[in-house]
Amino acid sequence: MPMIDSFGRVIDYLRVSVTDRCNFRCVYCMPEEGAPIAPKEEILIYEEIVRLLRIGAELGVRKVRLTGGEPLVRRDIVTLVQQVAAIPGIEDLSLTTNGFLLPRYARELADAGLHRVNISLDTLRPERFRAIARRGNLEDVLAGIDAAREAGLTPLKINMVVMRGANDDEVVSFARLSLESPLDIRFIELMPINWSAGDEGMRDFFALSASNGAKPSGNITLYANDSLASFKQLFRQPAPGEQRGMLNAAQMRCMFISAAEIRHRIEEACGAMEPASVITNGPASSFRLPGAVGTISFISQITNDICERCNRMRITADGFLRPCLMADGEVDMRTPLRSGATDEEIRRLFLLTVRHKPREHRLEDGLAPTGRNMSQIGG
Fold first, then answer.
1. How many domains does the chain have?
2. CA distance linking residue 38 with residue 316, whole number of Å
3. Distance between CA 27 and CA 112 in Å, rounded?
4. Which of 17, 27, 53, 292 has its CA 20 to 30 A from that of 253?
5. Kind of pairing, strands 295-299 and 183-189?
6. What is the pLDDT of residues 235-292, one digit of tens each?
7. Which residues contact 74 (CB under 8 A, 6 or more apart)?
8. What's the pLDDT score for residue 362?
9. What is the CATH number of the domain that holds 310?
10. Which residues, in sequence order, are CB contacts of 235 under 8 Å at separation 6+?
11. Which domain holds residue 266?
12. 201-220, pLDDT tens digit by residue?
């Protein structure tokens, strides 16, 4: 029987962070010195991850994405892929990576049962790559893209987080990659994972964004069956002073650029796009340039309401189950796993989390997650 939340959404997708460590330091994700990482003993071991996914599959989970941090820095990641691929009911197994280690692992991952990868790439210029990622190099990531294609990890999606004044002048160059290559080029609105709740400028920012299609503010019911107070009591809260990222709220607002503006720039340079279909498209809206082999997609989690079709939950590397990326709140799964909980007790925790899945994020009302940054949640 599938998991259905309080608003009628079928929850069949789990994103699983296998590590909070990363070999890059992307400016929108973590500071130059890195973010706090969980002690090794708090990170879920593979047997625990597999058990959670097996129980999740029994509850209707059909899609699994392995994330980080950078998942390929986790030792023996190919072994985990092989174990997850063998779980009955898992129909789609994918991985998000910065691509740096893909030349080494792409073939092994495909042979182990991985279906496809998403590769994060924010620039095609070597000097700019070092400024944004602050680690690695562009050549190895491009080699990783080639290795993934050769291994059959397709459809291959390239994720570009667009930042005004940093890389937005490359959106047309990225779009043109789809003309001759079977890639899905995905333009992602800068996600304010570390904007502080109560920042007075946030309301002004979203008022300005409304002209680009932002969903209207207003009083809504976030939780159908449970009060917000009970939700907070049930979920882990952030520690005082916990690190939340690199860019502050003011910088994020200045660098934000809407999907509508990105699309306008591309069509102005390359011609009108037509709607297209991409396998396992998720929240993206996809299109195709005239005569293109590949596709172009937009993920506009800020200026358009994609919450209404959200079908996912997230498991952090240290074993907490989150019903929403952009709202605080998570259920401790690690402690029950290590305290002898039965499968039925674990099932109840899954269902509890589904019941607490909010209707939508409330970024436009100044509410933002404060407990973890992106690398600590899982991208």
1. 1
2. 11
3. 33
4. 17
5. parallel
6. 655 555 544 445 666 677 788 899 999 999 999 999 999 999 887 656 788 999 999 9
7. 18, 19, 21, 68, 80
8. 62
9. 3.20.20.70
10. 328, 329, 330, 331, 356
11. 3-377
12. 434 433 434 444 444 444 43
